[in-house]
Amino acid sequence: MEKLKYKIERPGVAVIVPVHNDEQRIGLLTESLLQQDYPPGLVEIIVVDNRSTDRTRESVSEIPGDFASGVPIKLGEAHSRCLQG
Containing domain of residue 63, as a range? Predict the structure, then answer.
């Protein structure tokens, strides 16, 4: 009897990290995420900054993603709206 070989396909994963004034810990968090053993081509890290007033954005920009780890790190800014009715 011939054994069937199944290819297990893993889904792509986006890790969304909301952050506000957390320059001290954002580097440790992203470093920890980059050390996961999920295939690098299937992971992206999206850091959403909620208008930090410290060096959070700069800290994220200094993290070596993409080329060093194969995992893209994207930085965005949160936008909120107040709806009045």
Answer: 13-77
pLDDT digits (tens, 9 = 90+) for 11-58: 999 999 999 999 999 989 988 888 888 888 898 889 999 989 999 999
Rounded to whole angstroms, the Cα distance separating 76 from 16 reads 10
13-19, strands of its sheet edge to edge = 13-19, 43-49, 73-77
Query: What tokens does 3 get?
Result: 């054994």
3-state secondary structure the chain: CCCCCCCCCCCCEEEEEEECCCCCCHHHHHHHHHCCCCCHHHEEEEEEECCCCCCHHHHHHCCCCCCCCCCCEEEEECCCCCCCC
pTM of the model: 0.73
Number of domains the chain is built from: 1
Evaluate whether residue 35 is within a structural domain.
yes
The answer as to whether 7 is a domain residue is: no
